[in-house]
Amino acid sequence: xxxxxxxxxxxxxxxxxxxxxxxxxxxxxxxxxxxxxxxxxxxxxxxxxxxxxxxxxxxxxxxxxxxxxxxxxxxxxxxxxxxxxxxxxxxxxxxxxxxxxxxxxxxxxxxxxxxxxxxxxxxxxxxxxxxxxxxxxxxxxxxxxxxxxxxxxxxxxxxxxxxxxxxxxxxxxxxxxxxxxxxxxxxxxxxxxxxxxxxxxxxxxxxxxxxxxxxxxxxxxxxxxxxxxxxxxxxxxxxxxxxxxxxxxxxxxxx
Length: 255
What we know:
Layout: H1 3-13, E1 22-24, H2 33-41, E2 49-60, E3 63-74, E4 78-85, E5 88-96, E6 99-104, E7 109-113, H3 115-122, H4 128-135, E8 148-152, E9 157-161, E10 163-165, E11 169-174, E12 181-188, E13 193-199, E14 202-205, E15 208-211, E16 213-220, E17 223-236, E18 251-252
Parallel strand pairs: 7-18
Antiparallel strand pairs: 1-10, 2-3, 2-17, 3-4, 4-5, 5-6, 6-7, 8-9, 9-11, 11-12, 12-13, 13-16, 14-15, 16-17
């Protein structure tokens, strides 16, 4: 599996897990949880379409690669990405709520399926909204569901499930001033796995805030995978198109 494929797919799915059996967790609150969570969602930008350029760097023990990615999005409907190196198009992805498609020219491979199939392979829940949230600097779960408790430390707000999963611990950290997302973290201690997604400075866009950088660090045992995403241009509510077709002659990825 080649680097560009890893960047486009791993950056989406590393952060996604499903809550199953649970145990109680406590939180010391200095503001009502609902107020903190509502203040966070008030920071989200209001837009219909987005076009942007991304600089993505992927690093693991055997790979260190950077690519330029064109991103187009129609909120709630479609995510389109085209990756290139030195101006040469290498891979494309097209993601909608009911379909996931991507191909890579170097490896000569493609995938055409849905989130249900990917969820079965991953053994964990995965959906379009989670992928979109990750790219927009938003929590991968809806904190307004009533299942979360918010408290504070000396430097930031902490939000966690009222009942943590028996399989992993999940935490969200907010900026105490702007209520933007600083970090989301999932830890599986028994499996020696730790996923941390950090967000750089947020800029004011479309009556809300948008992340300038996303930094993903996935630790599994002694193996570390790093993915850095930098936004280098944002254009909101402009007309966007999603040209996508899988070239002939590529080999389908068997999952």
